[in-house]
């Protein structure tokens, strides 16, 4: 939107601004044409000669913000806010202040302007919206309450209720209760008729009472019996979900059953409706028999060809078993046992891609003998891989056979070869465009799964599995499950840089960084200097811009939703905003970058204040328990009943980090950089690796006991890490130990710059133990170069007519290992 026209609404009431507009016309022209540097130059000239200084500064801040000079824009805005502000300056400041993280100042400014122009309703509303965007809810409530008393406007009243709910979420339980009770008194003063509700105000009304607790909610739910309200609910899925949630809070299972029953009778086969009906029936003391009749009738009406109603029958069995209720009535109504229904579902839907995933929760309930029968059924349904139908039948059969398969390495190699051969055949017979995932991708995934299940820690097995994944990725450019699996295998094999290249190939959107990036970034700091540049690039060019942009854009979107009365959107957007600000991924990557800089001795004195500020923020969030972990751990599937045998667990290369790890690392880094000496932490150390635990125990001994005790602790640390490196089974563990020993050395030196640590002891222990570490690294490099995989390679890959992708992968892994080991050796040599 052109700045010149954007500010006109403020000009009309201020005749004195005309001269400013005339003098600043060249700046407006430069801004409108996108010539921001010219706008800055012309604004500086006006400021220099003392003409229209405030207006020139405001427009200069717009140009500075556009070119990303946020620090300079802040300085300019600080000068503006010290002086007199005309109405014509509001528009540029509304653009700039949110983008330089000065929303509270904008809110205060608009409040002051509104006070000076009490008849300007638009300005008053802008002030309240700014308060909401700045999360200054208490001030917003004061302004809204004043307006409610003054105008009696329904819009002001409902906005007051909305803000009171947002405010309550910021407070501790006692304060939240008080805030909601104040709003409740105001609500009781209103004469609200059911016919007055819109879908948004009804959502707000019910959500507000839900937040107040069961007693108040029960009273409020009487309104859903009114015909006008029922019409609103019928036209809104959001309201339907909310109403069922309210009944669930009240444990009104009969109401849920009645509502869902009516919908099912009308032909609704939405799984949310079916599953809610079955769940309520299982929890109701009288509902199961009625539920059986309804669900079975729906399945029969659909001629057992609708996945939703068929699965609802299986869900009846499972829910009854979980609740300890007899399933005899279900068997009697359908003339089939639970196992027979599972088999029938498989036969009916074996050609569907979701068949196995649909059945997997119900397979868990099958006794061993019944599962054997299901395996027979799966084999009988298998057909040739000549088309999409045959491929899906083959995949679902293989998944069923894999669930309880006993696997050793010989079986795994043979089965992987067989599955890879089937994958090649599926590509030949039913290849989809490169823009699509290939139909047979899960055959290659199963080939990998067999190998990892046989021995997930054997380096040769990891390489074979990575080779299968690399071939699959070369054939299926968008096969995300294959590529994520390859990424995790590459990390275990010591190729983080190659893993990053494959992560880029996934094309992950910035908004998914908070939930997906851990597949390549988890434990990344263990690769130290060799990996740091890629991690920093991902942070600088992907994650940080997203978090920064979200911090600016989400309040704007929240303000728009608030102004338009989209109350349900405001709540969802606010929750999303809070989640991003407390992001686990954000804290984890920031800590990893700090550790990597320490490990490579690249953390400068000038960076320490900013680093301490980052650590302080992370520690504050972790202590308050508000770090939000939204990592999606389900992108890799599980075809086994044991959680420890999921594909995610089999490719996990260390203990999965959690919020305890965040607190643990932030604590010891802050103590070290503050040079406090002793490092203490109350967090559980179940989230750390043995090497990280050794590092923490060393740092916790600093400042405790005498010099002799500390010398022993230093010796024990280097000795323990040397053992970790010597006994490592894969490259991940080897790198991890090597970089931890470097991190420990540099952390001790940071502390010793002020404390009387035995620096001679530190240096002697480092030299003594790193000699052995260097030998292990050199031995690992030589072993990689000499390793032959001819027998295993031939066994697994005989069906391939082209090994280019596999050979290229192995060559890249070897090259990267050599580069990384050389990098570590250089770091060690620089100290010695």
Automatic annotation (TrEMBL):
Cellular-component GO terms for this entry: NatB complex
InterPro entries: NAA25_NatB_aux_su
Signal peptide extent: none
Protein family: Belongs to the MDM20/NAA25 family.
PANTHER family: N-ALPHA-ACETYLTRANSFERASE 25, NATB AUXILIARY SUBUNIT, N-TERMINAL ACETYLTRANSFERASE-RELATED
Full protein name: Mitochondrial distribution and morphology
